[in-house]
Amino acid sequence: MADTTVVHLLRHGEVENPANVLYGRLPGYHLSETGRRMAETVAKAMAARDIVEVRSSPLERAIETATPLAEGFGLDVVLDDRLLEAGNVFEGHPMGEGRGVFRNVRNYRHLWNPFRPSWGERYLDVVDRMKAAIDAARGAARGHEAILVSHQLPIWIIRAAAEGRRLWHDPRQRQCGLASMTSLTFEGDRLISVGYSEPAGSLVRRPSVPGA
């Protein structure tokens, strides 16, 4: 029989972001106190699982989410640039109502093609790098389980690709909450199911910045 391997894609926890900016790949954005509690809650929820590999985006908020998990299983966090947030020209811009990027007509030149999208990294490129990261983790954890800590857009895009759905979408419709888990189950090299759970859902206090 083929080995069954599960790769869990974990979105990082809540970030300290009082200015409500799209932080994207910018450095210096760490988990809030609630975000740290989210990471600890997920670690406790996964404690009985067969986790043999923990990998993370190199951004601070992802590493801080991965650390309690890795410590619980006696593992090191393996950093993987392929799990990074998607590139976005609006990094550092405020996203709140009345001050958001859509209020400034100078930003419209970046909004001409939602299918690519024209304001950031191509969806197809995100799929390619996320698939490569998943395949590498699946190989390292074959017959067991791995956790990959990443970001909302990359997780949602690879899920859409895995389920055969279109990549362009309304960010408000993503099913990828803070500290949520999108789980891919493989038999051998074949994907057999996609699952979703929110082990720290009770700690989510407010909507987060889309794509964060």
Automatic annotation (TrEMBL):
Output the CDD domains linked to this UniProt entry.
HP_PGM_like
Which molecular function GO terms apply here? phosphatase activity
SUPFAM superfamilies hit by this protein:
Phosphoglycerate mutase-like (SSF53254)
What's a single GO CC term here?
cytoplasm
- State the InterPro entries in the record: His_Pase_superF_clade-1, His_PPase_superfam, PGM_Phosphatase
Q: Which Pfam families match?
A: His_Phos_1 (PF00300)
- Its protein name is Phosphoglycerate mutase
